[in-house]
Design goal:
- The chain is an alpha+beta fold and 184 residues long.
- It has two domains: 3-114; 118-183, SH3 type barrels.
- Helix content is 62%, strand content 15%.
- It is built from seven helices and five strands; from the N terminus they run H-H-H-H-H-E-E-E-E-H-E-H.
- Strands 4-3-2-1-5 form a five-stranded antiparallel β-sheet.
- 13% of the residues are buried.
């Protein structure tokens, strides 16, 4: 009789408890590792601290949902008795997600812009969008929008998802300035 069979015989939920403890350990370690990787990347790219924190929270949420799904598999949760409740929940959640689709796409775009963006705070850019083009200095890159100060002094909040879809021209003077900052 091996150890796990012995535990199952005398302690009926021991396997699930051990797997749950392993999953908790995985959750904590993966959060720590992900946080370190994103922080190091943010420091190397000179990304503002609030953007680094937003990105860490986003990845931690994804890890949490993944671990919850695995936890349900470990404990063999069946949904037969909950079908009416789940149907109602998913109906409401579907409507809410449809309404919040633009918010989710802005958050996802913010994560993409975190890891790849050729411009930074202080860059002079032009977003090419036909008659709705925006030209100015980037003041902030946050979770939902890019904050741009245009030439007449007004401040424009441009959604991150649209920034990924449109062409962005970076002024040469701001490229030279950012290279001087990075090089020394």
């Amino acid at each position: 009789m091996n150890f796990l069979n012995y535990l199952d015989l005398y302690f009926p939920y021991s396997t699930q408890i051990l797997l749950t403890l392993c999953l908790i350990f995985f959750f904590l370690v993966s959060r720590k590792v992900t946080s370190k990787i994103v922080r190091k990347y943010g420091i190397n790219r000179e990304i503002s601290l609030p953007r680094v924190i937003y990105t860490i929270k986003y990845f931690n949420f994804i890890i949490f949902v993944f671990c919850l799904l695995i936890l349900g598999l470990i404990w063999d949760i069946t949904f037969e008795g909950f079908s009416v409740y789940f149907l109602s929940f998913f109906t409401v959640a579907g409507v809410a997600l449809f309404a919040a689709w633009s918010i989710l796409s802005n958050v996802t775009a913010a994560v993409i812009l975190f890891f790849y963006f050729p411009y930074r705070i202080g860059s002079k850019i032009r977003i090419i969008d036909g008659d709705n083009s925006v030209e100015g200095e980037v003041l902030d890159l946050n979770l939902f929008t890019m904050v741009i100060k245009v030439e007449d002094g007004d401040v424009v909040n441009y959604p991150n998802n649209l920034a990924l879809q449109k062409g962005i021209k970076i002024k040469q003077s701001s490229l030279r300035k950012s290279k001087k900052i990075l090089v020394g």
